[in-house]
Design goal:
heterodimer; A: about 240 residues; alpha/beta; six-stranded mixed beta sheet; four-stranded antiparallel beta sheet; about 35% helix; globular; B: about 290 residues; 12 helices
Chain lengths: ~240, ~290
């Protein structure tokens, strides 16, 4: 049995008196792919925002690896290992694909100003290490030939792949993916599916919102559906 | 035409424009508080030198520390504000600082300002001629330019640019946006203190009218015309704005009309640049 990575306990959320979730309970295991389905406006994205700390629940708790989400800022939650790919991928358009990956690492000493005074050499060393790691990830996601291309010039499917690879570079343990298969061609769907299976084999947990149920079901270990303010497990 | 004086003013404005570029060009925050920090730097240097007998370099260090602390205050209150709201907060700070400088007569001399500011002594040698101040200002400007030359290639700036382009994307990667805004504003305030202190000792007289909102707008115009997000844009913008009045003086019209003509030329250039080169003449980043 895999270790529990996310545990949601009696979560409730309303907007302006309109109930969205009522005492939702979910548990996700490490190293699994999970899909969440639901009609438009049922609250799928809000649910992911609650897990990522971008919205606060009215009641109930979300536990991620011993961390209680509602007591932390969104960046602290991301730092703890919950990475999110937004419906419109938030890649950095003016930077190259490689630079997008380099900036995604959260241990880079070059991102802390005082390190330039006290740890100059470690910045250079780390930059070289990260480049190696970034190229490996790009090759795995078949983006190696686009390393020097501006991220803003990629197709939507490639931006989604880049977003997922950025989460991998970030060492996220739980990846929240908002519609990874939407608006992309079948070839890219295949590439994204392969990437997600790879992530699973590395012990990462994937939780995705998807409308393309047949593609998501094929690779998912668990599927969930939002209905009547609850989230039910389908299989 | 005193070219040495113009050259010195170019040096001061290059430092100011590069500092403004750090906040606006790399972080994407439009600040109208640059003249306020410029004024605080000038006044602290002056007061510390004149009232407490410190030498220039010690006074400069104190001015830098004072400016950084002042930047903490504004950043603390505005760091969570976005875009226009941040700009409005800096505008309010600028107005408050100007009012304090203009009205706190006991300390700042109020509308009379402070005169007879002691000059700079370097290893016991008293600077007195303009060319000596040009060398001093040039040394500081060169250091600032070199700093930014190396700084802009660092992972730190890469991250700043990413925050500027997609703040939400940076947050989802676990970046503490507030920390980076704090650092940028503090660094800019520290560099602006250098410009303020040079201005004070060079003129040997300061008053609050040199640090008005108009001055802040002028600094923003420099980086809008030159362009932001790199080195050449702010340097060009600063030199251009300092030189333009001298160039318009060559036009054979009387001085009253000349001043109006300058304003018309400034405005026209700004309109043309915003319309046809929204990134500025050499810039990498367009304000949204």
């Amino acid at each position: 049995m895999n270790k529990t990575i996310l545990h949601i306990d009696n979560l409730s959320k309303s907007f302006c008196g309109l109930k969205l979730f009522d005492e939702v309970n979910i548990t996700l295991q490490q190293g699994t792919i999970n899909a969440l389905f639901g009609s438009n406006g049922s609250g799928k994205t809000t649910f992911f925002n609650l897990i990522g700390g971008y919205e606060k629940p009215d009641a109930g708790k979300i536990h991620f690896n011993g961390l209680t989400i509602k007591y932390h800022n969104e960046f602290e939650i991301a730092k703890a290992g919950i990475g999110k790919m937004w419906q419109e991928p938030t890649v950095f358009p003016n930077h190259s694909v490689l630079q997008n990956l380099l900036v995604s690492d959260r241990t880079h000493p070059g991102e802390y100003f005082l390190n330039y005074i006290f740890r100059g050499k470690s910045i250079i060393r780390k930059e070289a290490e990260l480049k190696d790691k970034a190229y490996n990830i790009l090759r795995k996601f078949k983006l190696g030939n686009k390393a020097d291309q501006a991220a803003g010039s990629l197709s939507l499917g490639e931006k989604k792949l880049l977003s997922i690879s950025m989460l991998l570079m970030n060492d996220s343990r739980l990846l929240l993916l908002d519609e990874p298969f939407s608006s992309v061609n079948p070839n890219t769907i295949e590439r994204i599916s392969e990437a997600l299976k790879d992530l699973k084999s590395e012990g990462k947990t994937v939780f995705m919102i998807e409308h393309k149920i047949k593609f998501a079901e094929v690779i998912s270990d668990n599927t969930f559906k939002i209905e009547h303010f609850k989230i039910e497990k389908l299989n | 035409m005193n070219w040495l004086h113009i050259f010195f003013m170019c040096e001061i404005y290059v430092i100011l424009a590069l500092s403004a570029n750090l906040v606006s060009g790399y972080t994407g925050l439009l600040s109208f508080a640059n003249a306020a920090f410029y004024g605080v730097g000038a006044y602290v240097t002056t007061i510390v030198m004149k009232n407490f007998g410190f030498n220039y370099f010690s006074a400069l260090l104190i001015a830098i520390i004072f400016n950084v602390l002042a930047s903490f205050i504004i950043t603390y209150f505005s760091v969570r504000l976005k875009d226009l709201y941040f700009t409005l907060a800096t505008l309010a700070f600028q107005v408050i600082v100007f009012s304090v400088l203009y009205n706190w007569e006991k300390v700042t001399g109020g509308s009379y300002g402070i005169s007879e500011i002691p000059g700079v002594k370097v290893f016991g040698y008293q600077l007195s001629e303009t060319k000596e101040y040009v060398i001093l200002g040039g040394s500081f400007t060169l250091m600032v330019i070199l700093f930014f030359f190396f700084f802009q290639k660092t992972p730190f700036v890469r991250l700043l640019e990413c925050i500027r382009d997609r703040e939400l994307g940076a947050v989802s990667l676990g970046k503490n946006i507030s920390y980076y805004k704090f650092i940028c504003n503090s660094m800019a305030a520290a560099f602006i203190a250098i410009a303020g202190s040079l201005f004070a000792v060079y003129n040997s007289y300061i008053d609050a009218t040199s640090f008005t909102l108009n001055e802040s707008i002028l600094i923003v115009n420099m980086i809008l015309i030159g362009g932001t997000g790199n080195l050449i844009g702010p340097i060009f913008g600063a030199c251009f704005y300092v030189m333009l009045p001298e160039i318009t003086r060559l036009i054979p019209i009387d001085s009253t009309q000349g001043a109006s003509l300058q304003m018309i030329i400034y405005s026209l250039i700004l309109i043309l640049v915003v319309r046809f080169k929204p990134n500025g003449l050499f810039g990498k980043f367009k304000f949204q």
